[in-house]
Amino acid sequence: MLKDFTKGIIKENPVFIIVLGLCPALGVSTKVVNSIGMGAGVIFVLLGSNIFVSLLKDFIPEKIRIPSYIVIIASFVTVVEMVMEAFIPALYDSLGVFVPLIVVNCIILGRAEAFANKNTVKSSILDALGMGIGFTLALMLISLVREVFGLGTITLFPIGNFSGVIEIPGISNAPVRVFGLAAGALLVMGFLKALFNWVGELRRVK
Amino acid sequence: MKEIFKTGAKLAVICAVAAISLGIVNAVTDPIIIAARAARLNAALQKLSLGFEIGELVAVDDGSAVTGYYPLTDAGNIIAYIIKVIGAGYADDLNLLSAISIKGKILSAVLMENSETPGLGKEAENASYMEMFTGKGDGSVIPFRKSQLEHDDADSITGASITFIGIGKALNKASEFAINLGGM
Amino acid sequence: MSYIGIIITFVFINNFILTQFLGLCPFIGVSKNVESAVGMGFAVTFVMALASISTWVIYNYILIPLDIEFLQTITFILVIAALVQFVELVIQKISPALYKALGIFLPLITTNCAVLGIALINVRNDFNAIESFIAGIAAGFGFLLAILLMSTIRVKLDSEWVPKPFRGIPIAFITGGLMALAFMAFDNALLNNLLG
Q1: Are residues B40 and B63 both part of a single domain?
Q2: What is the mean predicted confidence (pLDDT) over B23-29?
Q3: Cβ contact, residue pair B19, C71, below 8 Å
Q4: Residues with Cβ < 8 Å from B173, sequence gap 6 or more?
Q5: Domain boundaries, chain C
Q6: pLDDT surpassing 80 at residue C66
Q7: Where are the beta strands (DSSP E) in chain A?
Q8: Which end of chain C is more exposed for a tag (fewer CB within 10 A), N or C?
Q9: Which of A31, A78, A178 sits opposite B118 (nearest CB)?
Q10: How near does any CA of chain C get to the CA of A69, in Å?
Q11: B61 & B40 share domain
């Protein structure tokens, strides 16, 4: 049971191992705070769609399962869009077109098709949480590398007196801006994936 | 045949339930979104007004980049305008508000709604970004080319020059517009 | 923006893959050989052009009059899914040869961010019908260009030695990154110089 939850975090990490959901992973990962926001949105949608797909698995006929899943997913995405615009407009603005594009994040349809329509609600919830958290952690890792080198800062949520921005001395006055650009995102992703392959290989040899 | 009908009906039910629930969420969040937008606009106007009195919005609809202005008055005399102007951004329009003196000098500016790239064009939302433009106009050039910038400023817009050019050109148009309006 | 401006913008300056991160999954997944990359590129261009025009009609003649713009995402994705199914059926009937070439890529296109992306970007840009259609085709060609370049490079890479952890996907990303660096040469300044 617990394996349904933990597998998504490292062993079947959606971004680094299965290589899905790449567009948002690279598109919004310029700042750590954007990754957290995107991750929260994806976890919510994944949770909602996994629960409903699992609940309705006997109601939905085989033939129309894909359109039905898409309707369910798109509804949750629209809810995220509206709620985010209403309550955290700054985050909504900075994620831009990637919020509605959660609909076509292959991870969500993939989990509905590969897991939720064959499993109980309880394991589907665990699966959604594991995959969602795995996705969020992967995004945070990419954005941490990109923001630290590209802007010389780490941007989190402002709490009380803390403005939410940590400046890294030595880099923030002369950052390597290419990390923040499209090219930097692809390069960082390539090197991180190679790192994952290398570590995976080392573990297999042992 | 009956099977197809049943399948279709099920899909219709799913769609209907989805549409109705979204309608409900929309009814709840829409007023909040509108109120939040109004509040943000108001806050931006207060900041730009430099303490002077803000007049009523005058809409402009002549097909140019300027879409409207608020006169700023000091003891009944118009001394500046807050001009709403649209620039061409990287992905979408750049909505700018800029306080400009009747002689065309940029007093302050702020970037409102936009869809620029986070970490690049989005940086123009920071108050410090607009320092490249403030104080310019009325005798000096409002920059809209990289070559018109100091070295440090030119460095800081690398990767987001489209945003910079869009803002620069829009502010030039707004400045011209303010000069044409004059003190009235 | 003039039509030529839109074409240059969507093919080069705002290339969907190399600057906007839209359509990365097929870019990495279907670029191992040139033939399938070209097939995927044309299939995506075709669907993007159709999707641009049909979502424009639905947005302007159904969603706006009924005041239900908030259903935009859900309608667009359903339209795209239906469109892909329809295109698949039509191609299968009309040209079995073309179906054999494009068929396996079509189901993948529904979840290609680039297609939903162009529909949403058209709405955000307030494009009219012709502008939307042109933007759709141009963005599709931008996708085709990027995936074609990528696949020719990957074919060459196959005969080169690559350190083991980098083989396959990582080196593909790094190649893409270097291509994106090259595409930085295309910006609005270029557009202004070309069109005045």
Answers
A1: no
A2: 88
A3: yes
A4: B64, B65, B66, B85
A5: 11-173
A6: yes
A7: 153-155, 165-167
A8: C
A9: A31
A10: 11
A11: no
Burial environment of residue B182 by CB neighbours within 10 A (0 to 12, 13 to 18, 19 or more): exposed
B87 and B164 housed in the same domain: yes
Question: How much is the pLDDT for A79?
Answer: 92
What is the reported pLDDT for A158? 75
Please provide residue C117's backbone torsions phi and psi, each rounded to the nearest 5 degrees.
Answer: -60, -45
Please state the domain count of chain A. 1
Q: Are B91 and C188 within 8 A, CB to CB?
A: no
pLDDT in tens, B34-65: 888 888 888 888 888 877 888 888 888 877 78
Are residue B25 and residue B110 in the same domain, yes or no? no
The number of distinct structural domains making up chain B is: 2
**Chain-centroid distance, C-alpha C75:** 19
Give Cα separations from C159 to B162, C33, C154, C167 (angstroms): 40, 13, 9, 12
| CB hemisphere CA count around A9 (13 angstroms) | 9
> What does chain A come to in residues?
206
Q: DSSP letters of chain B?
A: -HHHHHHHHHHHHHHHHHHHHHHHHHHHHHHHHHHHHHHHHHHHHHHHTTTSEE---EE--SSSSEEEEEEEEETTEEEEEEEEEEEE-SSSEEEEEEEEETTS-EEEEEE-S--PPTTTGGGGGSGGGGGGTTT-BTTB----SGGGS-HHHHHHTTT-HHHHHHHHHHHHHHHHHHHHH---
A177/B contact by beta carbon, under 8 A: yes
Q: Which two tokens stand for residue B177?
A: 């517009």
**Cβ contact (<8 Å) for A181 and C184?**
yes
**CA dihedral sign of residues A51, A56, A58, A60:** negative
ipTM for this model: 0.85
For residue B122, give its domain range. 53-182
Are B39 and B102 contained in the same domain? Answer: no
Orientation angle between helical segments C129-158 and C113-124, nearest 10 degrees = 150
Same domain flag for B74 and B144: yes
Phi, psi (rounded to 5 degrees) for A3? -60, -30
- Answer left, alpha or beta for residue B78, where phi above 0 means left and psi between -120 and 50 means alpha: beta
- Residue B91 has a pLDDT of 60
Task: Give the Cα separation of B172 and B105 in Å (integer).
Answer: 10
Same domain for B11 and B61, yes or no, is no
Residue C192's pLDDT is what? Answer: 66
Which residues from chain A sit within 8 angstroms of residue C82, using beta carbons? 67
Q: Is A96 left (phi over 0), alpha (psi -120 to 50) or beta?
A: left
* Entry pTM: 0.83
Q: Would you call A31 and B120 a contact, using CB atoms and an 8 Å cutoff? A: no
User: Can you give the pLDDT at residue B141?
Assistant: 82
CA distance C42 to chain B (A): 24
Enclosing domain of residue A70: 2-205
Grouping H, G, I as helix, E, B as strand and the rest as coil, residue C19 is coil
Please say whether the beta carbons of C48 and C36 come within 8 A: no
| B92 close to B115: Cβ distance less than 8 angstroms | yes
- Could you tell me if B122 and B43 lie in one domain? no
**3-class secondary-structure state, position A163:** coil
Q: What is the DSSP letter of A63?
A: G
